[in-house]
């Protein structure tokens, strides 16, 4: 602290003080200790024969071979792809429509906005349990519609292995599309009013203006939305556990659940870590270069 | 923002046909209904008795609304062999959430401050690593953290789960505060330095009072995020400290012959009440936190 009594600070580099280094210690410990060492340790374990406890009997890529030969993992990955693509597309479309319709100077705008976004404040466990109840075959929505006279109506996806994943999808879209709406609405409000005037002068219909002029301008918002949604997709665990438990059969198993199950109940750490490393790979490939370009390389200010 | 709205073309459009205006409202109202249905179903189910639920009228209003299921969910519902209701989970969540929120915000604000004004060699790299941490799937770091906490004797303890929430909250909190401090004029900092203020003086006397708005956003973000967490609580909190979400799932999964849907839904509402209340009270702050906060899974 004694160094801080100097009156003039000739250069930025002089800003470094003991206290600033001290204050950054927790950050350094977490950044390096958790996000480098722990990640490295996990990856390392994926090359070992670790069962319930970690050991270092190296087996090379055996665990990866076993992983991709495990039907539960392969099904999990397939489920994740189907679920992930549909989830992102549906959230983007519904979020965009909600934002556009809310942008029409409607009455009760903030009321609608509150209603569209509240599911996002609720936990995925709550979301999963509510939808599980509504999709209950004998007392849920299916039963209500059937009793209204439409006796062939079917809506009980969670008991059918073929459709269970779509049952989860509905719940997930319900929970998250408000997020896209909020982001897109903010994006729409940021668009220059001159563009609307120009489009009207040229006689372009409103819907075409939205589709061909406004939408391309919202690319940054779209990218943010996709990144946020994609992070949620890779992590999907709570929703599955609460709504289906991965079933029926393996029809809603997901990679995140595969990892947790293998490091806890199934006591197969090596295989679980191989799966975790596979989950890390796409994140590294997409996020890594972006972080480096945006934050690490440039000397800011 | 107001200006944009006023100069924009979306103002009162006299020429617009009322048909398309109707269409807008039809869309919005149907969407609103879709979003409301689960909350409505949760509420009416929790207010019914089991005989009424067995009639299969999911959407019907309760004939004789009663809070009996709420009382049972709060103080008697069974998760596993214990039948103390969801109240234990509620208090556990309170005990986990309050310190976790406080510590992660304090650390996040110091980090953000140091990264914005006291840059040192390697600080960019540290920040890049933290940011990477915001995107890393929990599954990749959970196992080493279990081992570590077991070694230091904190696995399955309240301190352990608070530490875990602090770790996983750090990337997003740091990002939030760093971006906020970076938006402040550099002259503010320079002037304080010229006056001889040191690291902590500037932090406590200048930066902290200025960062009240961003702190509100941080509190909302962390409170809802930690309250809603399931996975970390399940793994790290230990049997005596299981948070409300975990206990809720256990209660619903516990079946003794008859499934009491009204009790399950009452427990579900009780679990959702805290984040819902925060959401409704916070309004614009919640939305502000979203872009930064949704990174946290």
What does this structure look like?
The complex is a heterodimer of chains A (301) and B (297). Chain A is mainly α. Chain A has 2 domains: 2-45, no CATH class; 69-296, MetI-like (MetI-like fold), CATH 1.10.3720.10. Chain A is built from 14 helices and no strands. Chain A is globular and about 70 Å long. Chain B is mainly α and 297 residues long. Chain B has a domain at 88-253 and 269-293: MetI-like fold. Chain B is globular. The two termini of chain B are 30 Å apart. Mean pLDDT of chain B is 85; it is low at 1-8 and 293-297. Chains A and B meet through helix 1, helix 2, helix 4, helix 5 and helix 6 of A and helix 1, helix 2, helix 5, helix 6 and helix 7 of B.
Characteristic terms for this protein:
heterodimer, A: 301 residues, mainly alpha, MetI-like fold, disordered N terminus, B: 297 residues, globular, disordered C terminus
List the helices and strands and how they pair.
The complex is a heterodimer of chains A (301) and B (297).
Chain A: H1 18-23, H2 25-45, H3 62-68, H4 71-102, H5 109-121, H6 124-134, H7 141-147, H8 164-189, H9 193-201, H10 206-217, H11 219-235, H12 238-243, H13 255-263, H14 269-296
Helix pairs in contact in A: 2-14, 3-14, 4-8, 4-11, 5-8, 6-8, 8-11, 13-14
Chain B: H1 2-7, H2 18-47, H3 50-54, H4 68-75, H5 87-117, H6 123-135, H7 138-151, H8 158-182, H9 186-194, H10 199-210, H11 212-228, H12 231-236, H13 244-253, H14 261-282, H15 284-293
Helix pairs in contact in B: 2-14, 4-14, 5-8, 5-11, 5-13, 6-8, 8-11, 11-14, 11-15, 13-14
- The CA-CA distance between the termini of chain B, in Å, is 30 Å
Which superfamily, in CATH terms, is the homologous superfamily of the domain at 88-253 and 269-293 in chain B?
MetI-like
Helix content of chain A: 55-70%
The radius of gyration computed from the alpha-carbon positions of chain B, rounded to a whole number of angstroms, is 24 Å
Q: Helix fraction of chain B?
A: over 70%
Q: Percent of residues of chain B in beta strands? A: under 5%
Number of strands of chain B: 0
Q: How many DSSP E strands of chain A?
A: 0
Category from helices, strands and their pairing of chain A: mainly alpha
CATH topology of the largest domain in chain A: MetI-like fold
Count of spatially separate domains of chain A: 2
Q: Please report the number of helical segments of chain B.
A: 15
Largest sheet of chain B: none
Residue ranges of chain A: pLDDT <50 for 5 or more in a row? Answer: 1-13
Secondary structure class of chain B reads mainly alpha
- Low-pLDDT runs of chain B: 1-8, 293-297
CATH class of the domain at 88-253 and 269-293 in chain B, named Mainly Alpha
CATH superfamily of the largest domain in chain A: MetI-like
> What is the CA–CA distance across the termini of chain A?
25 Å
């Amino acid at each position: 602290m004694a160094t801080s009594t100097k009156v003039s600070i000739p250069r930025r580099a002089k800003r470094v003080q003991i206290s600033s280094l001290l204050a950054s210690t927790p950050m350094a410990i977490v950044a390096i200790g958790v996000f480098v060492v722990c990640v490295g340790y996990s990856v390392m374990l994926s090359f070992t024969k670790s069962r319930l406890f970690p050991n270092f009997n190296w087996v090379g890529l055996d665990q990866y071979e076993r992983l991709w030969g495990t039907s539960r993992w392969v099904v999990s990955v397939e489920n994740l792809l189907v679920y992930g693509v549909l989830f992102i597309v549906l959230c983007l479309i519904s979020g965009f429509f909600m934002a556009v319709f809310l942008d029409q100077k409607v009455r009760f705008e903030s009321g609608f906005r509150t209603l569209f976004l509240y599911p996002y404040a609720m936990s995925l466990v709550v979301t999963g349990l509510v939808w599980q109840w509504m999709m209950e075959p004998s007392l849920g929505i299916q039963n209500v519609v059937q009793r209204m006279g439409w006796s062939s109506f079917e809506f009980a996806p969670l008991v059918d292995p073929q459709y269970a994943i779509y049952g989860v999808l509905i719940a997930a879209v319900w929970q998250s599309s408000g997020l896209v709406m909020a982001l897109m609405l903010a994006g729409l409000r940021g668009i220059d009013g001159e563009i609307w005037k120009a489009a009207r002068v040229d006689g372009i219909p409103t819907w075409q203006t939205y589709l061909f002029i406004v939408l391309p301008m919202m690319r940054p918002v779209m990218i943010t939305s996709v990144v946020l949604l994609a992070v949620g997709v890779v992590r999907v665990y709570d929703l599955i556990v609460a709504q289906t438990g991965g079933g029926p059969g393996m029809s809603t198993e997901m990679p995140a659940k595969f990892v947790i199950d293998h490091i806890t109940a199934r006591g197969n750490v090596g295989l679980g870590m191989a799966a975790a490393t596979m989950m890390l790979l796409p994140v590294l490939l997409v996020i890594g270069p972006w972080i480096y370009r945006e934050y690490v390389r440039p000397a800011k200010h | 923002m107001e200006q944009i709205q006023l100069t924009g073309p979306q103002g009162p459009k006299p020429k617009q046909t009322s048909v398309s205006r109707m269409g807008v409202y039809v869309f919005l109202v149907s969407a609103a209904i879709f979003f409301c249905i689960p909350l409505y179903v949760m509420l009416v189910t929790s207010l019914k008795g089991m005989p009424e639920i067995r009639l299969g009228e999911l959407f019907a209003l309760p004939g004789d609304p009663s809070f009996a299921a709420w009382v049972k969910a709060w103080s008697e519902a069974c998760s596993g062999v214990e039948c103390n209701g969801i109240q234990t989970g509620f208090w556990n969540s309170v005990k986990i959430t309050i310190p976790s929120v406080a510590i992660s915000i304090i650390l996040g604000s110091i980090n953000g401050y140091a990264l914005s004004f006291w840059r040192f060699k390697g600080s960019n790299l540290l920040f890049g690593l933290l940011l990477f941490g915001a995107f890393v799937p929990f599954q990749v770091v959970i196992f080493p953290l279990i081992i570590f906490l077991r070694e230091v004797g904190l696995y399955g303890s309240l301190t352990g789960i608070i530490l875990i929430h602090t770790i996983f909250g750090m990337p997003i909190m740091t990002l939030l505060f760093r971006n906020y401090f970076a938006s402040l004029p550099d002259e503010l900092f320079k002037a304080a330095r010229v006056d001889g203020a040191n690291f902590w003086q500037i932090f406590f006397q200048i930066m902290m009072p200025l960062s009240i708005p961003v702190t509100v956003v941080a509190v909302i973000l962390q409170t809802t995020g930690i309250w809603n967490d399931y996975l970390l609580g399940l793994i790290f909190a230990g049997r005596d400290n299981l948070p409300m979400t975990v206990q809720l799932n256990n209660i619903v999964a516990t079946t003794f012959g008859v499934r009491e849907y009204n009790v399950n839904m009452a427990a579900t509402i009780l679990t959702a009440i805290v984040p819902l209340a925060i959401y409704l009270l916070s309004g614009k702050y919640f939305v502000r936190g979203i872009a930064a906060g949704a990174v946290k899974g």
